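Board notes (copied after class):
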Amino acid sequence: MALAGRRAWAADHIPLGAQLYTVRKEAAQDLPRVLEQIARIGYQEVETYGDLYTNPAATLNHIITSAGLTVPSAHYGYKDIDTHFNYTKELGASWMVCSVIDPSLWGSAQGFATAAKQFNDWGQRAKDLGLRFAFHNHDYEFRPFSTEQAGKTGYDVLIESTDPNLVFFEVDCYWVAQAGIDPLTLLRRLGPRLKMLHLKDRKAGFPPSFAMNQDSAHFVPVGSGTLDWKAIIAEGKRAGVEHYFVEQDQTAIPPIDALRKSYEYLSKIT
């Protein structure tokens, strides 16, 4: 029975990962050392971001795995995805994630429909290579349209206009809350299309927004802000989330210490 219990725990357990954008300045100076620090904290996975791709994919994979970490997911800007399918495959990642839609498309339903069509194309290309494609949100996608399709949001368009078999979602819980939405509402809506979570917490006492600027930056380590992480983690497990990535865009303490503080909290509830 004890062995059966351990097997059940292993099947249910999702390793904690770190989005390396959190330590971008430190990674630019000494990536191997930063990865070793992340592994010593207890993280098992990392998610990569744009500046790291100056390394050949095989080299970057070697640096990451030499620290005892895996790299299941890679973030790319909207204009960078087309040229990185083979790179992602060689990197050893399973997921290609669009980190942000081109700002020229933010202002209208048609702009988001254009992005949705592109996502379907990328989703099919990823599938053909044995990869999967997902979109990572901020807060701008949740601004209601005032005229064209009044009341609907860009995120609504992305959900409704993408193929559920090709396009999945990585929900950044902070940015959902920053837009004034309860993350649990969105997680329940996405259901099995929810595959990854970005875990970052938000200070109390600040108004919501739909702009990615300094007035929207109220980041704190996970467990020291306002989000209900026990409920979020439970809902993620029900939906079939495969990966958690802790991220903090800005930190008041050294970034590696912020990652450690988040891990200490999350390791008790995941």
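Comment from the instructor: Residues 230 and 269 are 7 Å apart (CA to CA). Residues 109-128 form the longest helix (20 residues).
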